[in-house]
Design a protein that fits this description.
The protein is of the alpha+beta class. It contains 5 helices and 6 strands; from the N terminus they run αββββαββααα. A two-stranded antiparallel sheet has the order 1-4. Strands 2-3 form a two-stranded antiparallel sheet.
């Protein structure tokens, strides 16, 4: 790494540090404002760099479990599949160690905004219906 590259890297890190340091927030409801409160974690709401920083921050989530993972903005899609329902349930329970990744990164899963879905392929449903009719 050359001196110029190192200088640019250090400058970039200093820029991020200053951007994320000494953050404060307040709440305004109608004409009433709260006092300023220090923010120890996070990114300023509505900031231009917020989405980029989120992508950088969550980039390693897909590698943290066997879930097929899709990240889109601040939404995450986790998927597992198996032919056997009992095995699938066991796999999901084991793979929910993704919660460990969340906690270690000071994040949490918002269960009230989470949806759990069990689906079957149409081909299997069609075969099942055919078997039921033939009995």
């Amino acid at each position: 790494m050359g001196v110029k590259t190192l200088h640019n890297t250090i400058h970039s890190l200093q820029l991020f540090h200053s951007y994320l340091s000494n953050l404060k927030q307040f709440v305004k409801l109608e004409n009433v404002e709260s006092g300023l409160v220090d923010i120890s974690n996070g990114v300023p709401q509505g900031s231009v760099l917020g989405p980029l920083l989120l992508i950088m921050y969550t980039n390693d989530l897909p590698k943290s479990s066997a879930f097929y993972t899709v990240l889109y903005a601040d939404d995450t899609y986790l998927c597992l599949s198996h032919k056997n329902l009992d095995n699938l349930q066991h796999m999901v329970n084991v793979e929910l160690i993704v919660d460990n990744w969340l906690r270690s990164n000071k994040l949490s899963l918002n269960y009230s905004k989470s949806t759990f879905m069990l689906t079957k392929s149409l081909k299997r449903i069609a075969i099942y219906r055919k078997l039921v009719r033939s009995k």
